[in-house]
Design a protein that fits this description.
By secondary structure, this protein is mostly helical. About 60% of the residues lie in helices and about 5% in strands. The protein contains seven helices and two strands, in the order αααααββαα. Strands 1-2 form a two-stranded antiparallel ribbon. Strand 1 and strand 2 form a beta hairpin.
């Protein structure tokens, strides 16, 4: 079965499609950048037995903000059952632990163990390298501006 993909020899289809109107759509651009960044992040985190979601949970557990499972689910835009599965996996590996909440004992605070903090520091360095690769076309100032704009769009806060 023939396709039209090869109609323009020497022209990369992706380069040609950059002229499409959808390339001006913020949602499309954010999704495309996320997809490309996810590949780099997951590749960088694989050596630590982590993926983006489990890394995100470990990062929040290392934040000293004492997040609950519910807060993590809301912040990461995940279903509570997904958070439970991620925490279960990290807990089995000895990277995080659950404790009753101080205000509400039914709430479970998730914090990193010493091993979890060690793994996180190493994984964080790898994640930073992956981020740098994903945003290599931007200057440091532009990366800072991008992050500030994204935070503002998400939470009405600047950097």
């Amino acid at each position: 079965m023939a396709t039209d993909v090869d109609d323009a020899p020497g022209t990369e289809p992706a380069e040609k499609l950059v002229a499409a109107p959808i390339s001006q759509d913020a949602g499309f651009l954010l999704a495309k950048l996320h997809a490309a960044g996810s590949v780099l992040n997951n590749r960088a985190l694989a050596g630590f037995g982590l993926k983006e979601r489990s890394y995100s949970v470990l990062a929040l557990a290392n934040s000293d903000l004492e997040p609950t499972q519910r807060e993590m689910a809301e912040f990461l835009s995940l279903d509570p059952s997904q958070i439970v599965a991620l925490i279960d996996e990290l807990e089995k590996r000895g990277l995080v632990m659950r404790a009753p909440g101080k205000q509400d004992r039914r709430a479970k605070i998730v914090s990193a163990t010493a091993e979890g903090s060690s793994v996180f520091r190493q994984a964080e360095a790898a994640a930073r390298e992956a981020e740098s690769a994903a945003l290599a076309g931007l200057s440091d100032a532009e990366v800072g501006e991008l992050k500030g704009l994204l935070r503002k769009a998400l939470w009405n806060r600047g950097a």
